[in-house]
Amino acid sequence: MSLPHAILTALLEKPSSGLELTRRFDRSIGYFWSATHQQIYRELGKLERDGLIRELPSQAPARGQKKEYEVLPQGRAELVRWTAAPQDPKPLRDPLLLRLRSAAVVGVTGVDDDLRRHLVLHRRQLDRYLEIEEKDFPPEKNSEVDRLQHAVLRAGIDLETFWVRWLERTISELDDA
Amino acid sequence: MSLPHAILTALLEKPSSGLELTRRFDRSIGYFWSATHQQIYRELGKLERDGLIRELPSQAPARGQKKEYEVLPQGRAELVRWTAAPQDPKPLRDPLLLRLRSAAVVGVTGVDDDLRRHLVLHRRQLDRYLEIEEKDFPPEKNSEVDRLQHAVLRAGIDLETFWVRWLERTISELDDA
DNA sequence: TAAACCATGTAACATGTTACATGATTTT
DNA sequence: AAAATCATGTAACATGTTACATGGTTTA
Q1: pLDDT at residue A120, rounded to an integer
Q2: N or C: which end of chain B has fewer CB within 10 A?
Q3: A15 to each of A24, A68, A69, B89, B103, how far by Cα in Å?
Q4: A124-145 pLDDT, tens per residue?
Q5: At A70, which helix (H) or strand (E)?
Q6: Cβ of residue A49 near strand C, that is under 7 Å?
Q7: Residues by CB within 7 Å of nucleic chain D, which ones?
Q8: Is the pLDDT reported for residue B62 higher than 80?
Q9: What separation in angstroms does the CA of B33 have from each of A93, B6, B22, B23?
């Protein structure tokens, strides 16, 4: 039950159309919650039916025409409720770790190459995050909003750092075989 | 498409019934791939229909009777194929980070308490992993299988360590407000 | 005017979650 | 004999993925 709340958050930050939301889910929001345009359109329909958002009056509603949405008071209330409600951490579920476990049974052929490929990808993502940090969070930006957004970005940075280090170590250990 | 391969791996390690698998998914395997008994029974049915596993002949097949499964050659071949095939890293999708982002919009009330609760849970999980490491991976266990399994456990340890540190820092920054 | 792109969607399916159902075995 | 536990499932629904459909606008 997180996608609707991701959309509500995004729409509160700035009223948008489905495609604009899709683009934002490819960039900033997508760094910790990804979604495709199909998911977004489906969810926008539900949120509108439930009275949490509404179409901004202005455009003629027709296929191929842009439709912008904004959050209604009920939507904001639901987001406040969800944000404050306790939630247990999700158990880890990672295909790469599963593949290593299965490699222990059927052999490592092929996995080792993919570890190296992942290492490249994670290094690239880490660099992207570090650039964003440098650009968007200079020391003087220190309001509560800044600190929260910076904490989220730092989670991304630290997670990518974990992957880079873990992959480096794991690759070098498999090479020693 | 990972659950069937998680089950194949588990069954290769040791032929089991649905409930036994469920228990193993609550412990060792569940540390990086969780699944409920409903998922497992549904998937066992599919794997059997597809000819990747079969019921061990011995028990009468009846409701309430234990059914043990073993992996067929076709199943092993599919697992080998899947293990070697490249797969992109899954994009991050974490509800807690999303909640921090929404807290930046609607206010932090409630989230802070839950951060503290998560910190306790992650510390506990980290301790569990460290105990397992001490017990199951003494320095002399150093075969390829050991090194692979140890690498997986170390990913768990490093990830929990990340959460503990990140939560400590984030909590203390929010308190400084 | 054809191709590329913008924008919104449908359909089918795979996966994951929650609640409930049912028979067999063990314990009190 | 009742209660607890073992063991296997069904049903309904929510969420996520992949492939395709369709109309409008811009650009070569």
Answers
A1: 97
A2: N
A3: 12, 7, 6, 31, 18
A4: 999 999 999 999 999 999 999 9
A5: strand A68-71
A6: no
A7: A 1-4, 34-36, 38-39, 62-65; B 17-20, 37-38, 41-42, 44-45, 63-68, 93
A8: no
A9: 5, 7, 11, 12
